[in-house]
Amino acid sequence: MKENIILSVKDLETHFFTSGGIVRAVDGVSFNVKSGETVGLVGESGAGKSITARSILRLVDSPGQIVGGEITFHDQMIFGTQERADGTIERHPDMLDDETLRTQIRGSKIAMIFQDPMDSLNPVFKIGDQVRELIELNRDVTKYEAKEIAIETLREVGIPDPENRYSDYPHEFSGGMRQRVLIAMAFSCQPDLIIADEPTTALDVTVEGEILNLVRDLQKKYNTSFLWITHDMAVIAELCDRVNVMYLGEIIEQANVYDLFDDAHHPYTEALLKSIPRPDVSIEKLDPITGVMPGAINPPQGCRFHTRCPDAHRACLDTNPPLIGLDENEQHNVACIKYDERTGYWESEELENEERNQIKGINNV
Amino acid sequence: MSDSVGMKRRGEVELGETLVEVNGLKKHFIDNDGILTNISVDTGDGFPLKYQPKKVRAVDGVNLTIEKGETLGLVGESGCGKSTLLRTILQLLEPTEGNIYFKGTDLTSISKDELRDLRKDMQMIFQDPQSSLSPRMRIGRIVEEPMEAHGLLTKDERQRRAKYLLEKVGLDPSHYNRYPHAFSGGQRQRVNLARALSVNPDFIVCDEPVSSLDVSIQAQVLNTMKELQEEFGLTYLFIAHDLSVIRYISDRVAVMYLGKVVEIGDTDTIFDNPQHPYTKALLDSIPVPNPHRRGERGVLKGDVPSPLNPPSGCRFRTRCPSLIIPEGFDFREDEWDYTLSFIRAVKRRDFTFKSRDKVVERFFDGTVPRGDAGSVIDNALIHIENSDWQEASELLTEAFEEQSICARAEPQTYTQMEDTGVKHKTACHLHQT
């Protein structure tokens, strides 16, 4: 099984060095993506989903910085560190330089689709020419051939009348159509991996439905892998094979999509599933998670979710639980001490609400 | 009702009676896209230029009633006129035609002063909690301001009521002196709720109030809104693009398409037994948070047509999967379905022409329908072969789509009484018996 892992992220740490302190946006995240599968990254805003995605392409801008961990794509090291003799950390010599990353990985091997298509399209160039240019740069074809391919690609993603719409400008397209253009551009170089950062969040439900179907069809056709970032559990259910749930810079549960929905183990995942209204069944009363997600500058000590967790015990304050496998193959992993008998969770007493509020501000360093 | 902090209730309308009635409401905008766009050449006698303003028919003949104490959810894709309808009901936009009765008073015929006075009974909550709060005002003052504007209560009483309401919406009253930036999105939306409640309204209009919030926060705010509704006997008119939110919060649901209400009824009926093809398609196309139901979705193709020039007859007919077979053609059921998807594919230029046989194989399962219909399709295929897509599309549309009853007549509204005693209205030709 090992050989078809195309992207592996290990202990990734991306921090932001602000005047208010160090924001640990991504704090020790590990997961992988196999060939042809869709991996979901789900969580609330501020959980660190987008920063994780941007870190993979080294697109994090100052004051943010990747400070630790290892990112490998096929056998190329996108990010890595090694220890010097004196104990300090330096860049790994095998790490790809900026030039190689830009010309050989970004766009051609790993493409990215963002939430707002207008951020990625140039408003003063024709839609078709923007697609054509990309094809011309990355494939060995003439300008004329590239135009033909561009029109076919636009048709494939469902742009009506592509021969004529080729010469339209981005503002003449609806939001859904623009997102289709970006999907066309992402697929046009036939990358191995596409990172999609909430590409359907700003769209109408009907358009979202169409785009999800489109992506699934294209994925089947080209055997492309996806890392799909969203806050929407319905999109996860519709699209993903495996899911990583993030909370405050950490992955707190990973499982295949059926296990996650049928048999969620982490109290956060359970609570998240209970707090979403459903279009398919009537719910008398939603059971929301109490409180808001604390800031990432001073995350709560111990388990970061304990301030909002309905099952929090005193032992949850002691250690920040690592991901542990619930099965032998480590397909379903959860970061909660409830499932580790050695932690003394069941022996310790329940946490009162007042106590949580007092403890909330204390740093875990 | 609990009104410990100094407001008398005006109980003119009892729970369950009609609070708002909208009759034949229309709101058209003139498309002011430059001075010359509305001028056309008149080839007839007289002055050779004609002023013909283009009208955007954002809301085009809406009838609704809202009962006191209920939540009416309003759904539809972007561009269906939901927000315009809301703003017109509140008289923030002047209606082009029609009447709005609030507690029996026609809002379109009263003076500005009378309207201003009634305004305190109708409040609004917007989508973006950030931009609807002044960043330079303390939240206590924000909540007090509407009371002050309407000259209600004394200064001390207002302050007491503001604190009482902050607590009611789930905020800490001791945060009275903080500024909006100190609060999260969910908390800001709670401040908006408290402000709306300050003048003790009957009716609150909510335009996507939870769309910008995270799921866990969204659930908290929705629950608070439900609790407040029960406690204060509030009536909500609620827009959300998220149909699951609508299902959770609403008692009744109205489905809007291109300026018209196409179906309205009890929430469970609309979701479990929708009658209008648009409602069906809309519900069928949304992703459900259940991986076991993956792949069961249908799709609703295309965008909402422009309200500048809406389709004749039923406005959904250009996308409707159940378009009625035009009279005079001898179609089998499956042949009509094939033809319909062929017409739409030609319109969208969804495919490339390689050979006639390939097209016939793809759309008609190998054989073109017999008779008159067949010869029209054959002609269209010849046009396509000559790369004249426009001609082919016009020919097919004229011969088939525009002959259907759906294109020739506006559908009437058919009312059905549900077991729950709620009227279920559908505007579709399929329901003509």
Features:
heterodimer; A: 365 residues; 8-stranded mixed beta sheet; 11 helices; 14 strands; disordered C terminus; B: 433 residues; alpha/beta; Rossmann fold; 14 helices
Low-confidence parts of chain A, pLDDT < 50 over ≥5 residues? 358-365
Which series of helices and strands of chain B comes N to C?
EEEEEHEEHEHHHEHEHEEHHHHHHHEE
Supply the helix-strand structural class of chain A.
alpha/beta
**Approximate strand percentage of chain B:** 15-25%
The CATH architecture of the domain at 18-31 and 53-250 in chain B can be named as 3-Layer(aba) Sandwich
Global geometry of chain B: elongated
How many alpha or pi helices of chain B? 14
* Separation of the first and last Cα atoms of chain B: 48 Å
- What's the rounded overall pLDDT mean of chain B? 88
- Based on DSSP secondary structure assignment, what is the total number of beta strands of chain A? 14
The portion of residues assigned to helices of chain B is 25-40%
Assembly annotation: heterodimer
Major sheet details of chain B: 8 strands, mixed
**Count of helices of chain A?**
11
